[in-house]
Amino acid sequence: MCGVVGQVSLRGETEWDSVRFRYALSLLSKRGPDDAGIFEGRTAILGHRRLIVIDPDSRARQPMLSRDGRFVLVFNGEIYNFRELRKDLEGKGHRFRTRGDSEVLLNALIEWDVEALSFLNGMFAFAFWDGLRRRLIIARDRFGIKPLFHRVERDTLIFASEIKSILALQDTPRRLDLEAVSSYLSYRYPVAGNTFFEGTSSLPAAHFAEVRDDRIRFVEYWDPAPFFEAQQEDRGEEYYLDTLQELMASSVGYRMISDVPVGAFLSGGLDSSITSVLMAGQSKHPLETFSIGFEEDGHNEFKYARLVADSIGAKHHEILFSASEYLDTMSDLSRLRDAPLSVPNEVPLHAMSRDLKKHVTVVLSGEGADELFGGYGRIFRSPYDLERKIALQESNWTSDEKSTFAAAFFDRYRRADFQTELEHFLYQYRYVSLEKKEGLFSPSIDIRSLEERSTSVFEELFSRLSKDSYTNRIMYSFVRLHLPGLLARLDFTTMQASVEGRVPFLDHRLAEFAFGIPRDLLLRWRSPAEKAKGKLMLSDIISERLDQPKYILRRAFGQLLPEEIVQRRKLGFPVPLSSWFRSEHMQFARNILLDPGGLKGSVLNSSAIEDCLTQSEQGFSNAKTLWFLVSLELFNKAYLKDRIYRWTNESTGQASRVQPADPSFFSRA
Predict the structure, then answer these.
(1) What is the pLDDT averaged over residues 615-638?
(2) Reduced to 3 DSSP states, what percent helix, strand and coil does the chain have, rounded to the nearest 5?
(3) Tens digit of pLDDT for each residue in 444-460?
(4) 395: helix, coil or strand?
(5) How far apart are CA 208 and CA 191, in angstroms?
(6) How far apart are CA 30 and CA 358, in angstroms?
(7) How far apart are CA 163 and CA 28, in angstroms?
(8) What pTM was computed for the model?
(9) 321 Cβ neighbours under 8 A, 6+ residues apart
(10) Could you identify which of 38, 212, 355, 470 might form a hypothetical disulfide with 383, taking C-beta atoms 3.0 to 4.6 angstroms apart as the criterion?
(11) How far is residue 358 CA from its own chain's centroid?
């Protein structure tokens, strides 16, 4: 696990500011505290920070060069099937000096070029430079587990694992991207691929970019949409159970490959419990597991995590987090994130990562299970609401039943109907409603115009499955647009503690299989009687009372887990914001949001901010909106007002230099 940064000239040879580049590279030191290196060519300069996880030998350091010095690789991530790929490459005449995956990836790209992407099982963001052709390939894994950002500045492409390194190499003024702010308040992060800095973008998941001469070409190399078609052939529950068990065990085994200690996040929920129990079954030593919670009642899951840890003989660690610790950590993280914090539990997740670094360097986490296996029961069940509403007048229900359902529908959605499925979906999915968001922005800002770009992204995804079910379109959107936000949270919270987070549910073999599982095996009614009982109920009442999300997961691994874990309802990771914003956090929030140098007035509506603060003090359910605003303002102060990570002549950075064809790297064949 590492950090990468690079610059490529789009106009030919250039002189690089090596000192400034070393400073930009040094900003990634938390991602790679163990080693650093730079390759400097006439039209490209590439830097790498290394966190040693596989193959500690110095010959595995990066930038990694081919034997003839023509090709250069900087790589962040892990290729789990590198041993199998190595055998294939050895059969084609490639020779290896290291034991790890970086040299395998380098030679795979030399042998197969971008076709190698289809062979990789892993998480990755890399840059592959061909010095002879002056051609660069940058790429991200299928789900976007590892980040990669890019910007074109004065005929130079800049790319990096974190935006702070781009900021250090950027000469033009920083400007806040208002579309990103709008998307953040709706969806927790910019869903259209932009960032909070105008002109700087995220390379989309499952994409590569080819840079040659003065042209940049973006290509999507993988799309899960075709795999949904397999649902049309129901192969029987036992087939899906057996295959799921086999693939999940294989995925966990791959993600335990490491030359440093490996542990697991264990919340006590279904997903982390499955991961932990499968890890324990493949480990030669007691598994190290980690949980974090709050002092307030109902805001930790220690009881359930202990239950699982005891059942597998794990060495379990608990971290109790206070409101004051939360405030301090939130302020610190806001100067590292390069964006507003995305969710309140990002703060304790980093605290847990920081603590577990004392024991392990690699941790497995449960991200992806909800998206692949129907875990968001309320929203994945909601197509049933719209389906009944559309067919209501033509149904054979009695007049009383129709009236009862129509009233329940209005009570649930605060409106009588929706024009499209997308309108219905976005109504539920937005964290801050469009109407409320209009009030939060300054009157001079046309919020509906800002919203159009984000909405068009969802429209495009819905259109890819235009002949499929509404449920599948929701699940597809969650994989493509919701999941990247969760993965960015995992990457950030772990890497800022120099910890590598791995996600076994996002093995692409497992995911492609999951897309083809019949929906009834993901979200299942508990019985025909329970389905009949839910006839006039809406999804928020039905979910996890009359039906069971992630049915196939519970069935496949239930015999390995305590029954109490198998039957638990989804809790998420609750943070006691409502009580805090009536006590410890309120003065903190007021100081941040009412700062004269902040966004109040220019971007955000001053009176709406005051109302938000007042309502929270009075106990109204406004805490999450207030938290979003505080996080946004902390970001604004650090990055746009204070302009942290700006290059000055006093800035320094240390990194060793790697020259092409350095004989200490590879002997000649």
Answers:
(1) 85
(2) 45, 15, 40
(3) 999 989 999 899 999 99
(4) coil
(5) 18
(6) 15
(7) 10
(8) 0.95
(9) 292, 293, 294, 295, 348, 351
(10) 470
(11) 24
Cis ω on the peptide bond leading into residue 63 (within 30° of 0)?
yes
The CA–CA distances, whole Å, from 82 to 50, 78, 255 equal 18, 9, 12
The pLDDT tens digits for 53-87 are 998 888 999 999 999 999 999 999 999 999 999 99
DSSP-derived letter for residue 319 is E
Residue type at 396?
N
Phi-psi bin for 605: left (phi > 0), alpha (psi -120 to 50), beta? beta
Mind giving me the DSSP string for 2-16?
EEEEEEEESSS----
Residue 116 tokens read as: 């190698």
Residue type, 198: E
User: What's the CA gap between 75 and 89, in Å, rounded?
Assistant: 19
Spatial separation of the C-alpha atoms in residues 44 and 42, rounded to whole Å: 6
Beta bridge partners of 288: 263, 315
Look at residues 140, 139, 150 and name the one whose alpha carbon lies nearest to residue 195: 150
Which residue bears the tokens 């064949």? 669
**pLDDT score of 653:** 58
| Locus of tokens 């992407």 | 117
**What are the helix (H) ranges across 255-345?**
270-282, 302-312, 323-333
State the Cα–Cα distance between residues 373 and 375, nearest whole angstrom: 6
Query: Is the sign of the CA dihedral 468, 474, 475, 476 positive or negative?
Result: positive
Could you tell me the two tokens for 74? 């900087």
Q: Which residues share a beta bridge with 211? A: 136, 216
In Å, what is the CA distance from 303 to each residue of 290, 430, 455, 554? 13, 32, 41, 20
Q: Round to whole Å and give the CA distance between 232 and 228.
A: 8
DSSP designation for 427:
H
